[in-house]
Specification:
The protein has helices at residues 2-6, 11-23, 55-69, 90-100, 109-116, 123-137, 152-165, 188-204, 217-222, 233-239, 261-265, 312-322, 334-345; strands at 44-48, 79-85, 142-146, 170-176, 207-213, 242-249, 255-256, 268-278, 283-291, 296-299, 306-308. By secondary structure, the chain is of the alpha/beta class. Strands 1, 2, 3, 4, 5, 6, 7, 8, 9, 10 and 11 form an eleven-stranded mixed sheet that branches.
C-alpha cells in the first residue's frame, strides 16, 4: 500500500513532475535527425526495413553524431550513446563508423575490404590510420556493446547501471536488433513481457532506445506500410513512441516496402524514412539517399517534409491482429478520419 500511495499523484505533484522533466533538457538536441530534437526522456523509437538498405548505417550515424554534437558544460545537455549489437562484431561496427565519419582519408567500404581485410596496408601506415581515427572519433562518451550473449533484460540492467553513474545526462541506447535480443523468450507472452519491461525501464531510468526491428514476411508480401509491418507488431505498437519504416515510392506515388535487386546493387539508394506512428505529434516522411560506399545517409533538403496523419487502416489492422479479429473496412476509427479531413482542409495531402 505504501508503494501504491507513493505513486498516486495530485494535480500539484504532477505539475511539479512535469516542470522538473522539462527543466532537465534546457535546449533541443543538436542533430540532423529532426524527429529527435525535442524527444523526451523515456521514449522508444523503432526502425524497420528490408535487408541491404542501410538500417545499421542509419542508426550508427544517428547515435554517434547525437553524442558528438551534444557535449557541453551543462550535464543536462550531454548525451551518452551505447550501441548494443547482437548481429555485428565491434570490429565490423568500428569499420562502418570510420567510413561513415571519414576518420581516415579516402577510405570507403570497398577499400576497407580490399586493403585492410587482405592486410595490404604496411604497419607504419596502419599506425598512422589508428592514431588519426582515435583523434577524430575518440573523446566522447560513445560505447559499443557486443550483445551476442545478452538478452533484453541484460540491456535493461545496463541502462539502470548507466543511469546510476550518470544521474543527469541523456542516455541513448541502440538495440540491433530487437528480435535477436528476444531469443531467450520461448513464447509470445514472454516476448511481449520483455518488450514491455524495456519500455518500463526506459521510463523509470529516463533513457531512450532506438531499436531495429525485423519485418513480418506477410507484411512484405502484402506491402503493408504501417505498424503491422514490424515483427511482433502487437506489443511493439503498444510500446513504441515513434515507428519508422524504410520505404520507396512506386510509379503511382504510393509508399512500398518492396525493392528490386537492381536497386540494392546501386551505389546510392534513394528511399524514404516513413513515420508510421508518432505518439508525440503528426507523422512525417523524409527523403534520404544512402551512399553504400561511405555508409552514410544524405538528407535531401530540397525535398519538402510531408506531414501525414496516422494511417487509421494500419492502426486498426494491428489491434485486430492482436485480438485475432479479421480486418474490415468499417473498423477504421471515425476520430482518425475526422482528423484527416481537418488536415486536408489545411492543404495536406494523403494517400
Amino acid at each position: 500500500m505504501k508503494e501504491l500511495r507513493e505513486n498516486l499523484y495530485t494535480v500539484e505533484k504532477a505539475i511539479d513532475a512535469f516542470i522538473s522533466q522539462n527543466n532537465r533538457m534546457t535546449k533541443p538536441l543538436k542533430t540532423e535527425f529532426e524527429f529527435l530534437k525535442w524527444l523526451d526522456e523515456g521514449r522508444m523509437v523503432v526502425l524497420g526495413g528490408g535487408s541491404g538498405l542501410g538500417k545499421t548505417a542509419y542508426v550508427l550515424q544517428l547515435i554517434y553524431n547525437l553524442v558528438k554534437n551534444n557535449q557541453s558544460e551543462n550535464e543536462n545537455d550531454q548525451v551518452i550513446g551505447i550501441y548494443a549489437s547482437s548481429e555485428m562484431t565491434v570490429e565490423e561496427l568500428t569499420m562502418r563508423l570510420i567510413v561513415n565519419q571519414e576518420a581516415i582519408d579516402n577510405v570507403s567500404m570497398d577499400t576497407v575490404r580490399k586493403k585492410f581485410n587482405d592486410r595490404l596496408v604496411p604497419p607504419e601506415e596502419l599506425n598512422e590510420y589508428r592514431e588519426k581515427a582515435k583523434f577524430i572519433l575518440g573523446g566522447v562518451p560513445f560505447y559499443f556493446l557486443n550483445a551476442s550473449r545478452f538478452n533484453l533484460h541484460s540491456i535493461i540492467e545496463m541502462i539502470k547501471a548507466t543511469r546510476e553513474k550518470n544521474p543527469h545526462k541523456r542516455i541513448f541506447v541502440v538495440i540491433d536488433y530487437l528480435q535477436l535480443m528476444l531469443l531467450g523468450c520461448n513464447t509470445l507472452e514472454e516476448k511481449n513481457r520483455a518488450i514491455f519491461d524495456l519500455k518500463t525501464a526506459l521510463t523509470e531510468y529516463r533513457a531512450n532506445a532506438i531499436a531495429i526491428s525485423a519485418l513480418n514476411r506477410d507484411s512484405l508480401r502484402n506491402d503493408y506500410v504501417d505498424m503491422s509491418a514490424f515483427k511482433d507488431s502487437g506489443m511493439i505498437e503498444y510500446t513504441t513512441d515513434i515507428g519508422i519504416l524504410f520505404a520507396f515510392k512506386n510509379d503511382k506515388g504510393k509508399y512500398t516496402l518492396k525493392s528490386d535487386e537492381d536497386t540494392k546493387q546501386q551505389s546510392e539508394i534513394e528511399l524514404y524514412t516513413k513515420c508510421v506512428k508518432n505518439r508525440l505529434g503528426l507523422e512525417f516522411s523524409n527523403k534520404v539517399i544512402f551512399n553504400k560506399k561511405k555508409q552514410r545517409f544524405i538528407f535531401d533538403r530540397d525535398y519538402t517534409v510531408e506531414i501525414e496523419d496516422a494511417t487509421a487502416e494500419g492502426r486498426d489492422r494491428v489491434f485486430n491482429e492482436a485480438l485475432e479479429i479479421e480486418f474490415e473496412e468499417d473498423n477504421v476509427s471515425e476520430k482518425s478520419i475526422k482528423k484527416a479531413e481537418e488536415l486536408q482542409k489545411q492543404g495536406f495531402e494523403f494517400e
